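yo, Anti-bacteriophage protein A/HamA C-terminal domain-containing protein is done. seq:
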Amino acid sequence: MTDVLDLEVALAALQRDYSKLKPRIRSLDHTVTCDCSGVTLRLHFPAFRQGQATVHELINVISQFLTAFAMPRKEVSAVSALYGNVCEDDFIARYTALSEAAKNLFKRANEATNRNGEAGELLLYLLTEWILGAPQIIAKMSLKTNREMPVHGADGIHAKFCQESGKIFLYWGESKLYSNITAAISSAVDSISESLDPEKMQHEIDLVQRNIDFSGLNGSAREAFLRYLDPFDESYNDRDDITTCLIGFDFKAFAAITPADATKAEEKFIILAQKELKEIAPKLAQKLHEAGLGGRPIEIFFFPVPSVQEFRDLFQAKIGWKK
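structure:
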């Protein structure tokens, strides 16, 4: 029991304050539901200024979290611990080197996995930590550059201790950025279904077990966490696996907002976004039911943008990643 309490405290200590994201990322309060018992629908969008979505500013802000997302927490903590203990120039040099390493990981991961959806992965990471209060356990990005290690699978692995149930919630992330929302939903459901294959899930668990030393958890908390992954331990039955999924898509409503709407831009956008969500929900439910996922716990983060391609291009340019 003591170890479990240590784990609860340790996971809470890993959480960061993301309130600084509120000026850039808005949350839509709504009552739209999905005809799937375990699915939660969420919708977030870039804040507006003078009637325009602040996509450039959003990219600038989320890119500041690259290091925390891409690098093992143990490495980030080691550099952070130098603050105040070494001269200012040395600390800046060490942190700059760590930031550059994070950018390079993004570029190398793109080459290793032949994909360019990492802007969505970063956004999903932030929303999972911020909105769900579940800190990242394993920096998957740092594993993707090992060509000898097959790491295709979850885009993020997060964890949270649920006081109400006494269970550990493990969140397995999937990120999809598509210009077309229907295509995005189809791809997301396919990926979620594939990720829940027992063999693939076991592979993901093996990755966590082999890399748990980099999680930032202390000894007793780490041992307690590992028991939730061990089928020979009773704690294994107190683990809930939950899928998180970011679905980014082009949304024409952004073009309907003009500088003339400056004072009521977000209010007008919210009306259009709620209407879109009501139309999306049954399409998502149908796809999930067809895939046999109607009862699975899934957290869906819809994130409409004016242009997915622009969003991706801006991010890649920000980190010096050639298209």
